[in-house]
Design goal:
9 helices, Topoisomerase I, Chain A, domain 4, three-stranded antiparallel sheet, 5 strands, Topoisomerase I, Chain A, domain 3, mainly alpha
Length: 227
């Protein structure tokens, strides 16, 4: 909540392509789209893959007031993300216009100098905004956990251990699609294991699948706090 409030304030109240506004835009994208933060090494070479810090202008296009990202992520998995927030789309459109022909989409003015956004700079912004040791991966971990909890709650009740394992496997496939990972990686590296353990014990989150994000997140947080 603290990071979201800070990022919203920096993104909406500031003007121009300054450091705080651009980094706030990146932070909100990480939250909305479960992007990876990106790695310079992965973005180089014959088969480059990308995260938010290494995205190129050609990876984003505008359509009907929205911005669509299409790019190869880690493992060569094609990712598509639709951004509909009007203020974010305005910043993204300005960046695309400013960065035509440039290698990186995200950058900002530092006085008279234009600087590309770096992955470590994004994590520094998140630490400052959160007041803790938050990193970009925490967004992916949290969204994976929330999605898994909601989908397990909506799954058909299974009486047998085999049935429950089958349900968990199906949910992890959906989480993996969100993350651009394999189901195994989604379960072992992203989804909080307490969600799965509680499901096997017959305890699931109490929230409608179509509930607003804030309500769903509060319900999952309460579930984990009581575990």
């Amino acid at each position: 909540t603290r990071v979201r409030s800070s990022a919203a304030s920096d993104a909406y109240k500031r003007q121009g392509l300054n450091r705080d506004r651009v980094l706030a835009t990146v932070a909100r994208l990480l939250d909305m789209g479960a992007f990876r933060v990106g790695n310079d090494q992965y973005a180089a070479g014959d088969d480059p893959t990308f995260g938010v810090s290494t995205l190129r202008p050609e990876h984003a296009r505008s359509r009907r007031g929205c911005v669509i990202f299409e790019y190869p992520a880690k493992g060569g998995i094609e990712q598509v993300r639709l951004i509909e927030d009007p203020e974010l789309c305005r910043v993204l459109t300005n960046l695309r216009r400013r960065r035509r022909g440039a290698e990186r989409l995200f950058g900002y003015w530092d006085g008279r100098d234009w600087r590309d956004v770096r992955a470590d700079e994004i994590n520094e912004y998140l630490r400052d905004a959160s007041g803790g040791e938050m990193t970009a991966k925490d967004f992916r971990t949290w969204h994976a956990t929330v999605l898994a909890a909601i989908e397990l709650a909506a799954a058909e009740p299974a009486r047998s251990t085999t049935g429950r394992r089958r349900a968990v496997a199906g949910v992890m496939r959906g989480v993996a699609e969100l993350l651009g990972n394999t189901p195994t990686v989604a379960r072992t590296s992203y989804v909080d294991p307490r969600v799965v353990d509680l499901y096997h014990d017959g305890v699931v989150v109490t929230v409608d699948p179509g509930a607003p994000r804030e309500k769903a997140e509060r319900a999952v947080l309460e579930l984990l706090e009581e575990a």
